[in-house]
Amino acid sequence: MSSAPTDRPAPDGAGAGTGASPIRQMSLWPPPRSSRHSGKRRRSALFLGAAAVLLLGGVGGAAWALRGDSEPPVATETSVPDSHAGTWTGTMIQRNADGDHILDWDAQVKLESGAERGVAVWTTLNCRGSLTLTTRDGDRLVFDYVETYDPDSRCIDESELVLRPGQINGTLEATWNAVSHDGTAMTSRGTLR
């Protein structure tokens, strides 16, 4: 009987050309990584990080230079100027569309410089509401009035208040425009001090 050749290595390196496996030893651990290129990777990451910082710093610096923080902020077109700031009181004379006298009522308006909102109190009518500046055309300011308190249901929920400097120094001319609950256009005018 003849025996078939096997692929088992021969003891002590015998039978080197007889079909023995070229793998002599096998390790369970991966081979060590090459450190040949790791320095190059670190330098690339540092370069990219430095470039990003310089780019962002340049953009931020340009924006800061253009903004010019050396001057105080200027009131915007939707904020109350110094000339209209304060607490103003006076009597409003209400007339209907035909010019007939309807009612006189006392008003108080509070505005802060640089603000976009204020408060209005119609003291005779026991009503108050918020004012929101909608238009500023030079010294002429237009506010939307929205009622926030009216226990006797005597006032109109929404209306318009126009303020402009008065003929006498330190006064404001006020015009209040509204449409009543029954659809009648109403205008009240007065001088606030």
TrEMBL record:
Keyword Membrane: yes
Keywords recorded for this protein, A-Z: Membrane, Transmembrane, Transmembrane helix
Keyword Transmembrane helix: yes
Biased composition (Low complexity): 1-13
Region described as Disordered: 1-41
TM segment ranges: 45-66
Superkingdom as given in the UniProt entry: Bacteria
Annotated protein name in UniProt: Uncharacterized protein
Organism: Nocardiopsis mwathae
